[in-house]
Amino acid sequence: MGASQSTESNLAASIQRHLSKIVVAPSFAASLFFVYGFILWTGYMAFSKSRMLPVWDWAGLRQYERLWQMERWHVAIENLFIFGGLFIVTCLFIGCLLAVLLDQRIRAEGALRTIFLYPMALSFIVTGTVWKWLLNPGLGLESMMHNLGWESFKFDWLVNSDMAIYTVVIAAVWQASGFVMAMFLAALRGVDQDIIRAAYMDGASLPRIYFGIIIPSIRPVFLSAIVVLAHLAVKSFDLVIALTGGGPGYSSDLPATFMYTMAFQRNQLGIGAASAMMMLATVMAIIVPYLYSELRGGKKNG
């Protein structure tokens, strides 16, 4: 009887010790299958002869060769460089500027911070839809200016194949700048105030303090912001779909919209899988060095 009670007690103690792992295990297994399992499946499809339906016949690099021979893919890559470059640089500039202004302890700081952060709470679909209304020549800004009497005003970027990608930049910057501002503001508030006071006592001006002391001390935040924004740029899909639909034609296509079109609309599953793997490689090229530098920095501090 004593041995039975001891066994039950040990079992209960063992379950109690591993309860958190038991609770998390189903979610972990599901994530392992539905995320990494499908990444492996997509990777194999990129080397197969798949078109409308998955085919397991090996085709080597044929899908990648076809991918890089397509003009539409080159347009998507060019748009990614334009969109990503302008999106990252503009968000960093506006976010840093807003953070510096709010760091002056101005009135209504809490309300302004909420207003600037609010766009990030919206989905990209909502953002794209709203900006589509605003930039529509027949409904938005151009129509409003005409109604106000400025008949010569023209802003047709949304329907201009050469300028459509820049409307995506405008909408994305509007949504993400507040998030970058929050990152910089948190970093600014964490700077040692004794150093700033000492610089004031030495007669340094406010711009010199920011450019010579404060901003250089928050360089890791710049790196983190760049990684986050680059990741958002590479995987941008819903904003483009809601705002331009990849058009006019495919002039505002990005790799994510290209992949969707090939895989689910053009019955080119193999090419869609190949483009998805190229996107994965791009994201890994951004994130892996960042994680390596963070881990390396953590070991040095440890």
Automatic annotation (TrEMBL):
Domain of life of the organism encoding this protein: Bacteria
Record flagged with keyword Transmembrane: yes
Record-annotated membrane-spanning stretches: 22-47, 80-102, 114-134, 163-188, 209-234, 269-292
Chief location: membrane
PROSITE patterns in the cross-refs: ABC_TM1
Entry similarity comment: Belongs to the binding-protein-dependent transport system permease family.
Claim: Transport is one of the keywords in the record: yes
CDD domains, alphabetized: TM_PBP2
Membrane topology type: Multi-pass membrane protein
Cell compartments where the protein resides: Cell membrane
InterPro entries linked: ABC_transporter_permease, MetI-like, MetI-like_sf
Protein name as it appears in the record: Sugar ABC transporter permease
Key words, A-Z: Cell membrane, Membrane, Transmembrane, Transmembrane helix, Transport
PANTHER family for this protein: ABC TRANSPORTER PERMEASE PROTEIN
Domain ABC transmembrane type-1: 77-292
Record GO biological process: transmembrane transport
A cellular component term, taken from the record's GO annotations: plasma membrane
